[in-house]
Amino acid sequence: MAKLLIVESPGKLKTLRSILGAGWNVQPSVGHITELAHDGEDALGFELGDNQVICRYIARGDRGREVIQKLKAAAKNADEVYLATDPDREGEAIAWHVAQQLKLSDPKRVIYTQITEQAVKSALASPTRLDMDLINAQRCRQCLDKLVGYRVSPLLWNSTGGKSAGRVQSATLHLVCQREREIQAFTPQDYWSVWVNYQIEPTASPEMDSPEPIIFRAFYKGQLALAGASSPAEETTQDEASEDGKNDDAKSDEVQAPESTKVLTLAEAERLVTIARQEPHRVLKAEGKLTTKSPPPPFITSSLQQSAGSQLGMNPEKTMAVAQSLYEGVELANGPKGLITYMRTDSVELSPEFIEQVRSYLSQKDPKNLPTGKTRQHKVKDSAQAAHEAIRPTDVFITPKSIQQYLTPDQYGLYAMIWRRAVASQAAPAKLMKTVILTQSGPVCWEARGMMVEFPGYTFYWNNLDKASHLPTLQKDQPLPVAEAGHDQRQTQPPSRYTEPRLVQLMEKRGIGRPSTFASTLKTLKERQYLALKGKALYPTELGLSTDQVLLDVLPDIVSSEFTAAMESSLDAIAEGKQQWEQYLIGWNQSYLAPELVKARLAIKEKFPQRLYRGGNNNQDLAKSRTKCPQCAQPMGKVPTKKVKKGYFLKCVGTCENLVLFWSDRSGQWEQPQARQEAGTGKPVEMSPYPCPVCQKNLEIYPYVKDGQEKQLLRCSDTKARQEKKHADVVYFQSKGKWWSPKFGEIKAQDS
């Protein structure tokens, strides 16, 4: 009998079967096979007792039932069953559910973070037991998400028409909406950047004929009594000090031109230019310092998505899909091989074996870049998953160029980026000469900054340096001739909108979600039509802004980054065995969610007294739209429905009976259905000679427009009968000059 290895993804099968060979049956669970049931109070599928949470799990749809039956059959024919689901919280829970369904008394859990022969066989040789702390953390996460989603979302149905709220998605949406409000509230201000160009004539030599003059620019620094050049080593850019943190790929940021201390009036700018032109200039201070710049750490999930977005134009969802294919295995000349380690991680640690492998590579290929002394260990944040490594190649000697022919363009681009970043993280620091020159003209000081690369170090693999700028060697009190002086008018800029990778980075910094949820959260927000992409920038939609505002008004903690991060910290504590999951969940619901929901529901009713509550059908209860009826010019009502992409359609709540508008993506505006416009003209409904197959009343000819073409269909002419379930399939379409129904077939001549 064979040994059975159960993994998550079908994409791993070929690589694992190649590694394990005969005697092994490798089968996929295809992700989660079970889910919480949809019964009980609010269809939660679990009950919160005084000291216990009772969860009811069911197969995850038809696919889940099929997988369970297939795995049960495979387990019956196996001597031993090994569970090799992904090495994270969700993977541990999937393994537990598989063990429950297969009734495994002592399941063997194997964990590896790379699909290579050595890693897989080593894990199989030393199986462990399921980690119940991780499993309990996932169960708690699942219940938390359902509590928030199922009990908070109705507040949106009864207010904005939004489809859902979520523990992670609502906090993420708030970041984008908060930034949009900052942009809308921003008032630009004019200012001037004042500068002077110095021209130094180099000393001529017999070897050089007419050497070119050296020209460099200095910017207004301030009055002599207040100005003072800071040390080059103390320089901190505005981006590094910003709340959002430095972009992982510095070169991808919009390059801002250097500028002077801000001058707020044109008159003052012109006064300074006059001084620069009339007063002699001399060097107050010229300082140069050799500094080192350490390499960046290897990739984690958020930084990988950030760099893939800026360098390769990939959104987070695509980045993770391509990374998954590299992790699961690519068919190389000598068979399939996993090329990178597990890509859902927030740890920057590297295994000692890989570090030694990189050092061996550098020693052979690039000895100048081999750092001396201890191996480099990058700082790991406290909440990082300690058992994980950073994202890295499984074998540093498999260079991108050596396997380019076996990879798709996307795979090659991402693998090359991961390979370069991992090698750079262990290479020597870059050596930079940073210089500052401070000059004086009358009472005014001017400053120039320069930077030259003395030794590129790690930047040979990962260049995140600013553009080099050379300054001449000058002496204190040296006079400086002025070639030109002037000013540039500029305007303060609002904060920039987030790109998807940039938002992921901010989510990671704020502790919103975990690496496995970043991409799926953004996908959900776009599918719910809360966020939209314009170019690379994320914009909140009108629905997104109104949804965020309602939650901010009635449940502000749900959109708070700090509140969401605190919940993640509690889940981490449960995963580490430091907190009991049922006590936490019950306590959180009793102390926070239940009482806050009571207050929130009252606030919604007061704030939206005219809203349509589920089951209502009074036109006057509909939320009002800013769009006005094309006939009576009254604001139209929003009718919530899951049957249209926008989540609602518009209906006149005035005197225009049955006038409705639907959103058209093609025209970008609200439009009346073409058939409704025909009916509104007063023309009599055209009857066909054919009877309804259900009630025998005549079928009417119903005109409509599809893809810009006028078409017709037949339906029952009895308006009330059409609302009955048994009439739902009474519809005939024109096909090759004949009327045909998916249920009732073709209308024959004798049917008339």
Main sheet: strands, sense, barrel: 7 strands, antiparallel
Model regions low in confidence, pLDDT < 50 over at least 5 residues: 235-245, 250-254, 611-618, 674-683
**Strand fraction band?**
15-25%
User: How many distinct helices?
Assistant: 18
Compute the number of strand runs.
30
What structural class is derived from the secondary structure elements?
Answer: alpha+beta
Separation, N- and C-terminal Cα atoms: 67 Å
Walk me through the structure.
- It is a single chain.
- The protein has 752 residues and is α+β, with helices and mostly antiparallel strands.
- Helix content is 33%, strand content 23%.
- The protein has 18 helices and 30 strands.
- A seven-stranded antiparallel β-sheet has the order 16-11-14-15-10-9-17, covered by helices on one side.
- Helix 3 (89-102) packs across helix 5 (132-157) and helix 5 packs parallel to helix 17.
- The longest helix has 27 residues, at 581-607.
- It is globular, with a radius of gyration of 33 Å.
- The N and C termini lie far apart (67 Å).
- Residues 235-245, 250-254, 611-618 and 674-683 have low confidence and may be disordered.
Would you summarize the structure shown here?
The chain is α+β, with helices and mostly antiparallel strands and 752 residues long. It contains 18 helices and 30 strands.
Key attributes of the depicted protein:
752 residues; alpha+beta; seven-stranded antiparallel sheet; 18 helices; globular
List the helices and strands and how they pair.
Layout: E1 2-7, H1 13-20, E2 24-28, E3 34-36, E4 46-48, E5 53-55, E6 57-59, H2 61-76, E7 78-83, H3 89-102, E8 108-109, H4 117-125, H5 132-157, H6 169-185, E9 190-200, E10 214-223, H7 238-241, H8 266-278, E11 281-293, H9 301-312, H10 316-328, E12 330-332, E13 335-337, H11 352-365, H12 409-425, E14 430-441, E15 444-455, E16 479-480, E17 482-491, H13 500-510, H14 518-527, E18 531-534, E19 537-540, H15 542-554, H16 561-575, H17 581-607, E20 623-628, E21 635-640, E22 648-651, E23 660-664, E24 669-671, H18 674-679, E25 687-691, E26 698-706, E27 709-716, E28 731-735, E29 738-741, E30 745-746
Parallel strand pairs: 1-2, 1-7, 7-8
Antiparallel strand pairs: 3-6, 4-5, 9-10, 9-17, 10-15, 11-14, 11-16, 12-13, 14-15, 18-19, 20-21, 21-22, 22-23, 23-24, 25-26, 26-27, 27-28, 28-29, 29-30
Helix pairs in contact: 3-5, 5-16, 5-17, 6-15, 9-12, 9-13, 10-12
